[in-house]
Design goal:
The chain is of the alpha+beta class. It is 23% helix and 25% strand. It has three domains: 1-52, no CATH class; 53-221, 3-Layer(aba) Sandwich (Rossmann fold), CATH 3.40.50.300; 237-363, no CATH class. It is built from nine helices and 16 strands.
């Protein structure tokens, strides 16, 4: 049979094994548009079927880009920059120029300093060994920021192919769908969902008579919180509309819980304001530090939710790290969830996050 690729995820179509990627019943081969059974069930029923690929398989696929002469568009999630950053990307993509795209800008509070965010993204990428040509902020879901991106991509590619890369769940396919919609009017050309691992192979989209744009498989970064939560909890911690900040005045020896996923202990310092930027559906709870450990054991998955009981079975234990917050206005970033702004600083706090999920500090964006 002639090689056919699923138009939704890029997997090679096959009719023999229902448990493997790319499966369709033989009758589906007569359809004008062929999508695998996995994509069909994802699109129509939001059901996710496990696939046989390993993390290294995805990296090997991405490494093919190093042998091309092309433009690379790297997508990151603004709310999970560190978790959605592919370490070693420069090695995987060779000497090809890279444009960095921060997705989900529509979910940021309107008071966010976008220029400061762009400069922080450039510096953080550089600190992680990635040299980028330009940084843009977009909303792939709503089409914000795409005029500048389209101009930049067209100018930088100069007739070459374009590879869109990123970790799972950052919005790569949504980004490409938005580009296709703007140029052709076709909607939802590529399968998208909340869930990681939707794209399973390179999906080829014609740009002109001689060059293509490729949607690539999402690289799996195990430090992403997304890999430890159920589909239901993922929907709750993923913002769907503009985040509304919540402020808390804390004395030292008080604790804030962010659902049951993370907590911050105010260890030492003068009374301080903590401004929290998380999904509007994530529950935040304040308690005394001396009671925090027992409170977590008693209420996680109940008063402290999400996570659900299903997520708790696979969520790594919370690990504590104590840091001194500098005097200037600072954000404490919990990747995959959001951030806490400390306006005055000069205090000592302890951050509890799941093992292997790394929090970070940055100059405040608001």
């Amino acid at each position: 049979m002639e090689k056919i690729l699923c138009e939704g995820c890029g997997a090679e179509i096959q009719t023999e094994d229902k448990t493997q990627s790319g499966y369709v019943p033989k009758s589906a081969l007569e359809n004008k548009q062929i999508i695998c059974q996995r994509c069909f069930r994802l699109k129509h029923y939001n059901e996710v079927q496990d696939v046989e690929y390993t993390d290294d398989d995805y990296l090997r696929m991405i490494n093919q880009i190093s042998g091309t002469n092309s433009l690379v568009v790297k997508i990151v999630d603004i709310f999970d920059f560190n978790g959605s950053f592919i370490s070693g990307l420069q090695r995987l993509t060779g000497n090809n120029p890279i444009i960095l795209i921060g997705n989900k800008v529509d979910l940021l509070p309107k008071s966010t300093n976008k220029n400061k965010l762009i400069q922080w993204m450039k510096k953080t990428a550089s600190d992680n060994g990635l040299k980028v040509q330009e940084v843009f902020l977009v909303s792939a879901a709503k089409g914000q920021g795409f005029d500048k991106v389209e101009e930049e991509v067209e100018e930088r590619r100069n007739g070459k192919d374009v590879y869109v890369v990123g970790c799972t769940n950052v919005g790569k396919s949504t980004f490409i769908n938005q580009l296709i919609k703007r140029s052709s009017g076709i909607t939802d050309a590529i399968t998208t969902s909340y869930f990681p691992g939707t794209t399973l192979g390179f999906i080829q989209i014609p740009l002109d008579g001689e060059s293509y744009m490729y949607d690539t498989p999402g690289v799996v970064n195990r430090s992403q919180l997304v890999h430890y939560v159920t589909d239901k909890d993922l929907k709750l911690i993923t913002p769907k509309k503009e985040i509304k900040p919540k402020g808390y005045q804390l004395q030292d020896k008080q604790t804030l819980f962010f659902g049951g996923f993370a907590r911050i202990d105010f260890e030492k310092g003068l009374k301080q304001s903590f401004v929290c930027y998380f999904s509007n559906q994530l529950m935040i709870h304040r308690t005394k530090l001396e009671q925090a450990d027992e409170f977590y054991k008693k209420h996680v998955g109940d008063l402290l939710q999400p996570p659900s009981s299903e997520t708790l079975e696979q969520l790594p234990p919370l690990v504590k790290q104590t840091v001194k917050i500098p005097r200037e206005k600072t954000d404490i970033v919990i990747p995959g969830l959001g951030w806490i702004t400390v306006p005055d600083g000069g205090i000592t706090v302890s951050i509890h996050v799941p093992k292997d999920v790394q929090f970070s500090l940055r100059p405040a964006l608001i």
